[in-house]
């Protein structure tokens, strides 16, 4: 019998006419004649999930990205049918689904279009692997802008770009290079002063095209899995980012020392070398809270071991460093050396915890230790085992943090730099190939590490950092932007990457200050420090192959600049800690690109360099050599030059003079900025006053300050201090009202109030309606007052 068995190439396939629908509580199902099902789930009035299947039924609904601990709920839901379409209406938006072809459109309540399908959902059969290549194309309006997508090394506005998501070890990556270490398939669209977000929760290799191939079409597609995306309506970008961060989860508060300055190198060894670095920081009085040990601390690069020649007594060394205020952070990679005498390898082998190839043998790859096997962190039993391995490092030796590297996963000397795609994974009971699990491998390793560090650090808080991450990884870990290069272009890239990560849900991020590869000039290092102290994660790291990169590797001028800016970071720790509190409580990003800060102002839509640190400090790095100033955009409103206290009106681009030991920094009028005294490490000093820099504004401004014990979990029992300051400025008056919440009593008893920009001479001061005497000379010459922290209203009257 002869048959024609040649496969028919069908090309792109599309849903046909909708033949039925049903409504079940928060979900509406639409069925087509060719077995496509669209499930629309209303999670909130402004958050709607769209899930498609082409086989007539849905597979198990599972996601590593979504924070399942958080509940959702909507206020209003109405489903109706007219001749041509079905309509789903909430209290924020209307979604219309065409009966003829399942294409959908989303409108606000005034029938203004927010987002509409162009071709809409379509798919192509994957004959090589099975399943589908799933695709979505949306119509894009003229002038529409796009932001987000994690740590992309390109312009802030993604209009005209095509980008790829596949976690990749990209040593010494370049501007616009794709793909990079992290996968955050979430973007924000902005058009007609309305923002919306799309989160395409698909862990296969994904692509996003923002009007690159076709001028008015935005599309995204994946090499497998489902077309499963969430639509988030703003209309403000703040609302979109907050909702997305809420959906994928927020971290817990880090210990305050984790927000200090950290020093790292590949590698500090032996012990005497590490001790010299520690001593030099204290000698030069450059604050530092953490020192890192790269792979050379291990015995033959075997994880969870120590090289006893370099570090004969790790517990003693870690304790001695701790006495001088240094926390020790160590690296742990996923590759486990194939060595039958190595306890970690033996145990994983006995318990069958390593990843396997499709035909059964263990996945084998070369990394730093040589030939390795790799744990399957998508298996809950493996994660539990991995967490338990941290007992000795954390409980016994006293290490305070763990740094996960090479977890894309990276494999050396193979063309694709990673596992073969046929490697199998448990995927929490949803078995799959590496094609599906690749992008979440690093996150699941960080998750297991987090649970181990948390278990053995208790009652202190854990600190974990990862190189590779998928959306939602922020629940477990901080991150950095990978193996960058000591160039001015990379300083520009670092600035954009950390801003973009901040609005992509992963706020606790920084770059390798000075560049990992190659060697920076003193000027470049100084300019990078000046930027890096305004990143949530602040660490100098470098490859020792190219020379030293500690602050004292450069001249005295660079040492002075480093000290000045690291001192500034330590002064601003209460401000930075408050930013972090707002991030974990409300999903507010710690760094705000100008378009996030003021999307109504079209001048912000293409700005890359300037960002708002927290809510009230505007920062603009110097990104070119030999610069004693630069042009920058000042957002709308009133601002003060931090260095000169000169008031500037925003909404325009201006030239700002700087010096080698300055970058443009501005403070929002009306702000109350809290400051600690300079410490060489967090917790070094007991101090009796908190400095408050208060910037005059005609009108009202609110500022907040969050404090707690700086570590531990008492803050979850209400033992925190949350201060809300309301400043009200008039022509000859300044009123400061203070409201306090929480049961934590701070150690200090006084506020040192610096009054900046007062347009009048002080005639009278009242505290809680009682007139108080004050030293006029001190106030006029020094500009400050000392007041008891228990006040609730502070009233200054001018002459």
UniProtKB/TrEMBL annotation:
Pfam families assigned to the protein according to its UniProt record, in alphabetical order: DUF5110, Gal_mutarotas_2, Glyco_hydro_31_2nd, Glyco_hydro_31_3rd
Keyword DNA damage (UniProt): no
Domain Glycoside hydrolase family 31 N-terminal residues, every copy: 38-209
Residue intervals of the DUF5110 domain: 689-757
Entry keywords, A to Z: Glycosidase, Hydrolase
InterPro entries: DUF5110, Gal_mutarotase_sf_dom, GH, Glyco_hydro_31_AS, Glyco_hydro_31_C, Glyco_hydro_31_N_dom, Glyco_hydro_31_TIM, Glyco_hydro_b
Domain Glycoside hydrolase family 31 TIM barrel: 251-579
Origin: domain of life: Bacteria
Domain Glycosyl hydrolase family 31 C-terminal: from-to ranges: 587-673
Family the entry assigns: Belongs to the glycosyl hydrolase 31 family.
Protein name, UniProt field: DUF4968 domain-containing protein
Species of provenance: Flavobacterium ranwuense
């Amino acid at each position: 019998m002869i048959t024609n068995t040649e496969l028919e190439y069908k090309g792109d396939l599309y849903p046909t006419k909708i033949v039925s629908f049903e409504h079940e509580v928060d979900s509406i199902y639409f069925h087509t004649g060719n077995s496509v099902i669209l499930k629309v789930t209303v999670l909130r009035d402004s958050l709607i999930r769209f899930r498609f299947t082409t086989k007539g039924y849905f597979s198990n609904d599972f996601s590593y990205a979504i924070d399942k601990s958080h509940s959702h709920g909507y206020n209003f839901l109405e489903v109706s049918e007219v001749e041509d379409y079905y309509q789903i209406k909430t209290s924020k938006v209307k979604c219309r689904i065409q009966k003829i072809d399942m294409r959908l459109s989303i409108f606000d309540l005034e029938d203004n279009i927010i987002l509409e399908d162009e071709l809409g959902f379509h798919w192509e059969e994957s004959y090589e692997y099975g399943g589908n290549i799933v695709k979505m194309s949306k119509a894009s309006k003229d002038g529409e802008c796009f932001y987000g997508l994690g740590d992309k090394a390109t312009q802030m506005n993604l209009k005209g770009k095509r980008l790829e998501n596949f976690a990749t070890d990209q040593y010494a990556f370049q501007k616009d290079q794709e793909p990079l270490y992290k996968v955050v398939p979430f973007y924000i669209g902005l058009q007609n002063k309305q923002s919306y977000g799309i989160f395409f929760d698909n862990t296969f290799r994904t692509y996003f095209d923002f009007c690159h191939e076709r001028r008015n079409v935005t599309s995204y597609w994946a090499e497998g899995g489902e077309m499963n995306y969430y639509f988030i309506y703003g209309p403000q970008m703040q609302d979109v980012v907050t909702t997305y961060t809420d959906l994928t989860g927020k971290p817990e508060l880090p210990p305050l020392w984790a927000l200090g300055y950290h020093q790292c190198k590949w590698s500090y060894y032996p012990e005497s070398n590490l001790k010299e670095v520690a001593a030099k920081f204290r000698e030069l009085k450059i604050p530092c809270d953490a020192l890192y040990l790269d792979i050379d601390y291990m015995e033959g690069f075997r994880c969870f071991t120590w090289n006893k020649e370099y570090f004969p007594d790790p517990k003693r060394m870690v304790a001695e460093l701790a006495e001088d205020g240094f926390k020790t952070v160590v690296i742990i990679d996923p590759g486990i050396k194939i060595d039958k005498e190595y306890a970690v390898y033996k145990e994983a082998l006995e318990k069958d915890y390593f990843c396997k190839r499709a035909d059964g043998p263990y996945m084998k790859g070369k990394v730093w230790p040589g030939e390795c096997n790799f744990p399957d962190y998508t298996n809950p039993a493996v994660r539990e085992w991995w967490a338990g391995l941290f007992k000795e490092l954390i409980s016994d030796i006293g290490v305070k943090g763990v740094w996960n590297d090479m977890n894309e996963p990276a494999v050396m000397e193979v063309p694709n730099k990673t596992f073969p795609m046929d490697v199998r994974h448990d995927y929490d009971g949803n078995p799959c190939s590496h094609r599906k699990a690749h992008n979440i491998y690093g996150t699941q390793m960080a998750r297991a590490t987090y649970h181990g560090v948390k278990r053995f650090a208790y009652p202190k808080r854990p600190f974990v950092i990862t190189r590779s991450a998928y959306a939602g990884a922020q629940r477990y870990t901080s991150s950095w932007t990978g193996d960058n290069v000591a160039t001015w272009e990379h300083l520009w890239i670092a600035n954009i990457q950390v801003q973009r990560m901040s609005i992509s849900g992963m706020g606790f991020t920084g770059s390798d200050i000075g560049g990992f590869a190659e060697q920076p000039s003193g000027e470049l290092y100084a300019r990078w420090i000046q930027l890096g102290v305004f990143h949530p994660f602040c660490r100098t790291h470098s490859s020792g192959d190219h020379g030293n990169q500690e602050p004292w590797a450069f001249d005295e001028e660079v040492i002075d600049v480093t000290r000045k800016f690291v001192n500034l970071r330590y002064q601003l720790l209460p401000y930075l800690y408050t930013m972090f509190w707002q991030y974990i409580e409300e999903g507010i990003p710690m760094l705000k690109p100008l378009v996030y800060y003021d999307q109504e102002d079209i001048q912000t839509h293409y700005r890359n360099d300037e960002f708002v640190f927290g809510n009230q400090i505007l920062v603009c790095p110097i990104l070119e050599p030999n610069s004693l100033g630069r042009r920058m955009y000042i957002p709308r409103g009133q601002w003060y030059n931090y260095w000169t206290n000169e008031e500037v009106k925003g909404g325009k681009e201006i030239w700002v003079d700087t010096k080698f030991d300055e970058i443009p920094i501005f403070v929002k009028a009306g702000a109350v900025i809290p400051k600690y005294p300079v410490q060489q490490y967090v917790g070094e000093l007991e101090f009796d006053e908190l400095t408050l820099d208060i910037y005059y504004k005609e009108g009202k401004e609110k500022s907040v300050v969050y404090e707690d014990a700086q570590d531990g979990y008492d803050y979850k029992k209400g033992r925190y201090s949350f201060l809300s300051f309301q400043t009200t400025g008039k022509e000859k008056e300044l009123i400061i009202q203070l409201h306090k919440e929480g049961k934590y009593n701070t150690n200090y008893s006084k506020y040192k109030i610096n009054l900046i920009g007062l347009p009048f001479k002080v005639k009278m001061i009242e505290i809680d309606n009682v007139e108080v005497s004050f030293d006029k000379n001190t106030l006029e010459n020094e500009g400050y007052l000392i007041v008891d922290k228990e006040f609730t209203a502070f009233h200054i009257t001018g002459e």
